[in-house]
């Protein structure tokens, strides 16, 4: 049996335990990380690079198996877990973005990372634990990379920061920030918040980096123990260049010099996210000039290398961006709402060549998305879906289910709008937004944030404030630092940081950052957030000039929803035996009725009169009968001793034969028939809730009234 090696890492009074040697012994690196009773197993395996490989084939998968929470899938037909949930995909992206920048340039071996949640205690968050486990597994594997990485989540509760908060604490936080970092470099940040100030975000990032350093240091100690005891499982040796390859390297230097000397400005002018005609023409020239000296893909790489150098020199040395803008200048803006008659809300946001059309659909609460997760069943009333079709960059391409990038961008825009949405009690609708990217040249996710704000206001959703977003960039050469507002595609590709910030005029609601270089200090972050705020407010001004608040009237094609609050003990009366009453009511009024456990009844329909009728019926059903009160009822059943009369929907009482009329009734069937309608008076409700009614009592009143009238 393999030796088991463990290491404890103390983080703010809580313990992360790393263990290797028991599970997945054939993986090049396998680490089980525990915190409390939550446990994640991370494995890493590498294989030799495939011939002709010109990119780094890293795959990262995070898997949440339901057994970790003691759950069996609810489906009667399928018990095995299906495709990964969006949450699992987002976690995979967090891990990928944290580790990918640390692999050496030119490393082409195939690397597969799998993190599996094995146990979940409903208290300790498995996501930071998964990143720590992956970091540790890579560190002991022998696969070349510049780690380890520490990952930590920071909450902000009652003005204090909490590291790796429990799930119960997360319900109270006004900020959720996740950061990954090495000892000297922040790599990635994800954050959502309730209009949090820039200073709070900066302080949270500083504290998070400090904790990440502690975790990374603990992983280094663990790795040293494992390697000393077992050595590396994966033996990587950088391949020696053959004589032919050495000659090719010399030829590449000649081509590189030619590219730099003859580089056409048109390549930069045509740069976007799709095809670049000038670049294709220059590539053809180079290929003709140096055919057989190296591959066409390598020539294209040299063009990109030259373009990167030219773009960065222009920014860093001259303070001029590729499109002539200043460092803090936002591209031209255009905003439209209400573009389509039948959609419930729409917004078109255009910023330079980035155009995003967002469409809103409203539905009843029954249309909320049901999720089966390790937390159990959950529902989701606000959804944002992001689509990036190939035509948006002028190309052909695959169409189908969304990829990880689309899921990630959709989630970021969703997170940005959640803090301003009305509560379910104030607005009992399900909301689905879809952002269709019409044209792309940088920061379509922030375009989706702006489009979402516009579409929600156009749909009449009473959001508390409008939200805008902007993508920031950075180019850094030693102490020469330039922060760029509203980066386009080429600036993102050749820059050192992609920093997306969304928020209202009052504060930040979402943030996402990926860093490619070390040395990002507080001063740089402070400048980036300051410029981002100015950019956000500038964009917000353009949006509010078109629609400054949510419309008072929703689309006539959107469902009308009324809510009535009833005593929860009366829910059964509305539903009726086997759902008989509620089904009949829905069919009769053309509405959809949803009932919450707290007694909130939501009535949805496109016909106002139908909604009104259903509301009245529910009000009547749940109304208590009062002794002495008069009701109009219908005979539903006749027995020898009396007639049963329905006085309110689902509520019947007995009119005894002696209470039908003042005189003696020898044959009840000659007196009343099923379907007859008349007024009755409640004369008694016994301890078992049985209701006694009288028609005779009202007849006596009528006779007395007639005598009084004659007098």
From TrEMBL:
| Cofactor(s) named in the record | Mg(2+)
Q: Which SUPFAM superfamilies match?
A: Eukaryotic type KH-domain (KH-domain type I), Nucleic acid-binding proteins, Ribonuclease PH domain 2-like, Ribosomal protein S5 domain 2-like
Q: Give the enzyme's main class according to its UniProt record, as a single word.
A: transferase
Fetch the Gene3D superfamilies from UniProt: GHMP Kinase, N-terminal domain, K Homology domain, type 1, Nucleic acid-binding proteins
Keyword field: Cytoplasm, Magnesium, Metal-binding, Nucleotidyltransferase, RNA-binding, Transferase
Catalyzes what?
RNA(n+1) + phosphate = RNA(n) + a ribonucleoside 5'-diphosphate
User: InterPro entries, alphabetically?
Assistant: ExoRNase_PH_dom1 (IPR001247), ExoRNase_PH_dom2 (IPR015847), ExoRNase_PH_dom2_sf (IPR036345), KH_dom (IPR004087), KH_dom_type_1 (IPR004088), KH_dom_type_1_sf (IPR036612), NA-bd_OB-fold (IPR012340), PNPase (IPR012162)
What Pfam families does the entry give?
KH_1, RNase_PH, RNase_PH_C, S1
The residue ranges of the S1 motif domain are: 628-696
Q: What is its main location?
A: cytoplasm
Q: Which protein family is named in the record? A: Belongs to the polyribonucleotide nucleotidyltransferase family.
Query: What function is annotated for this protein?
Result: Involved in mRNA degradation. Catalyzes the phosphorolysis of single-stranded polyribonucleotides processively in the 3'- to 5'-direction.
| Record NCBIfam families | polynuc_phos, PRK11824.1
Q: What is this protein called?
A: Polyribonucleotide nucleotidyltransferase
Natural source organism = candidate division WWE3 bacterium CG22_combo_CG10-13_8_21_14_all_39_12
């Amino acid at each position: 049996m393999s030796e088991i090696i463990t290491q404890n890492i103390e983080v703010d009074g809580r313990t992360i335990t790393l263990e290797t040697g028991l599970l997945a012994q054939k993986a090049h690196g396998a680490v089980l990380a525990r915190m409390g009773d939550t446990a994640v197993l991370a494995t890493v395996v590498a294989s030799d690079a495939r011939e002709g490989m010109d990119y780094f084939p890293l795959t990262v998968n995070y898997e949440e198996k339901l057994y970790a929470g003691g759950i069996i899938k609810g489906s009667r037909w399928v018990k095995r877990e299906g495709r990964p949930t969006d949450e699992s995909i987002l976690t995979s992206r967090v891990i990928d973005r944290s580790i990918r920048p640390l692999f050496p340039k030119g490393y082409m071996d195939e690397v597969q990372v799998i993190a599996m949640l094995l146990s979940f205690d409903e208290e300790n968050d498995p996501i930071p634990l998964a990143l720590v486990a992956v970091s540790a597994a890579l560190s002991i594997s022998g696969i070349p990379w510049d780690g380890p990485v520490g990952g930590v989540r920071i909450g902000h509760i009652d003005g204090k920061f909490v590291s790796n908060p429990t799930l119960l604490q997360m319900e109270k936080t006004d900020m959720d920030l996740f950061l990954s970092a090495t000892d000297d470099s922040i790599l990635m940040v994800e954050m959502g918040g309730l209009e949090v100030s820039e200073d709070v975000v900066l302080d949270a990032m500083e504290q998070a980096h400090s904790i990440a350093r502690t975790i990374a240091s603990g992983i280094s100690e663990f790795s040293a123990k494992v390697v000393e005891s077992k050595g590396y499982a994966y033996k990587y040796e950088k391949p020696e260049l053959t004589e032919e390859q050495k000659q090719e390297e010399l030829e590449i230097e000649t081509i590189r010099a030619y590219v730099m000397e003859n580089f056409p400005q048109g390549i930069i002018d045509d740069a976007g996210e799709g095809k670049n005609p000038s670049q294709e023409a220059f590539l053809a020239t180079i290929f003709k000039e140096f055919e057989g000296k190296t591959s066409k893909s390598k020539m294209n790489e040299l063009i990109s290398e030259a373009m990167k150098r030219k773009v960065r020199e222009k920014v860093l040395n001259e303070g001029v961006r590729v499109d002539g803008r200043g460092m803090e200048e936002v591209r031209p803006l255009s905003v439209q709402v209400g573009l389509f008659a039948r959609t419930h809300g729409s917004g078109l946001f255009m910023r330079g060549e980035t155009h995003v059309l967002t469409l809103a659909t409203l539905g009843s609460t029954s249309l909320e998305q049901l999720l089966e997760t390790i937390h159990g069943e959950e529902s989701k009333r606000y959804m944002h879906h992001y689509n990036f079709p190939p035509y948006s960059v002028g190309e052909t391409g695959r169409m189908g289910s969304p990829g990880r990038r689309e899921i990630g961008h959709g989630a970021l825009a969703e997170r940005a709008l959640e803090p301003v949405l009305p509560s379910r009690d104030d607005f009992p609708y399900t909301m689905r937004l879809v952002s269709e990217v019409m044209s792309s040249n940088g920061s379509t996710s922030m375009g989706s944030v702006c489009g979402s704000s516009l579409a929600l206001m156009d749909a009449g959703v009473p959001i508390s404030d409008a939200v805008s977003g902007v993508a920031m960039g950075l180019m850094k050469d030693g102490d020469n630092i330039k922060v760029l507002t509203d980066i386009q595609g080429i600036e993102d590709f050749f820059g050192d940081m992609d920093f997306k910030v969304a928020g209202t005029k009052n504060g930040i609601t979402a943030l996402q950052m990926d860093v490619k270089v070390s040395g990002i200090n507080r001063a740089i972050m402070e400048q980036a957030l300051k410029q981002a705020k100015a950019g956000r407010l500038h964009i917000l001004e353009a949006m509010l000039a078109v629609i400054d608040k949510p419309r008072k009237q929703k689309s006539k094609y959107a469902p009308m929803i009324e809510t009535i609050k009833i005593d929860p003990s009366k829910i059964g009366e509305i539903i009726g035996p086997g759902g008989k009453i509620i089904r009949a009511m829905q069919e009769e009024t053309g509405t959809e009725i949803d009932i919450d456990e707290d007694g909130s009844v939501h009535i949805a329909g496109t016909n106002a009169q139908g909604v009104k009728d259903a509301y009245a019926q529910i009000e009547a059903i749940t109304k208590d009968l009062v002794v002495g009160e008069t009701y109009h009822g219908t005979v539903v059943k006749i027995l020898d001793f009396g007639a049963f009369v329905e006085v309110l929907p689902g509520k019947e009482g007995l009119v005894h034969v002696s209470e039908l009329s003042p005189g003696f009734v020898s044959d009840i069937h000659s007196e009343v028939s099923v379907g007859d309608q008349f007024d009755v008076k409640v004369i008694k409700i016994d301890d078992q809730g049985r209701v006694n009614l009288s028609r005779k009592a009202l007849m006596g009143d009528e006779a007395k009234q007639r005598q009084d009238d004659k007098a």
